[in-house]
Amino acid sequence: ALPSAKPEAISWKESDFKRWRPEDAGNGDRVKFVLDHIAQAATLYETLGVLPSAEEKEIRSAYRHISLNIHPDKVQNRGEKDLVEQAEAAFKIVVSAYDMLTDPSQRGAYDRSIRVSQPLAVAKTSRTDLTGMSFLKKFLGKFKNYGWDLKQKPKGDWEDEGGGVYVRAVGVKATMRHVVSGEELVLKRLDKGLTLSALKRLIVRETKRGPESRIELCKEDGTELTNDYRVSQSEVFALVGISLGPPVEVEV
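^ J domain-containing protein, sequence as received from the core. Prediction below:
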């Protein structure tokens, strides 16, 4: 049986932590309510609205309910650009909090790192602060050595957001490297299982060059690939047939 993610007994008081749920918004704007609470969270537990004594089942449930409310794809339908950007930033934080609190060893280390004798300070921020890189760096920087490192890329499938901030990659990443020019095209957040044919269509869309029949992709070592090959993990492909540089407008 897998070890429980329940933390060991420590010295904090649960009254120091703020518990909340998306449903607490009542008749108000639930999306904005959730984003505000994520921005104001002083700990990973408060990010998900649970207490340090929460069992893994409760953490999973909280993560699911929050995700249903602020997933960027859902917020996109509201047509509010600022709100979409805030949701994208908040969702990265929520996923990162969930990853740590459902990993027994990381959660135990995190619990020890926030053992306190005084009530935790509440961040005086709101959802409008979520899109600032300084906020993300400050938030992720709190948990250095527990999954995020502001100096080097952590082990695993993480993406560099700039400014020394790393977040969990969503999906897989495909890097196309031109065998002649050395130019690169990087496509992130691709669905696992994407076929090579679909990948070629994305290349045409991004480079505005084609047709697909001109694009030849193979492994870096030259291994040939068929069009039904599926991209199941982040990898690098060698490419010939079209240029990957920015399209050039020519007057005729």
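Strands lie at 158-162, 165-168, 172-178, 184-190, 194-195, 216-219, 230-231, 235-240.
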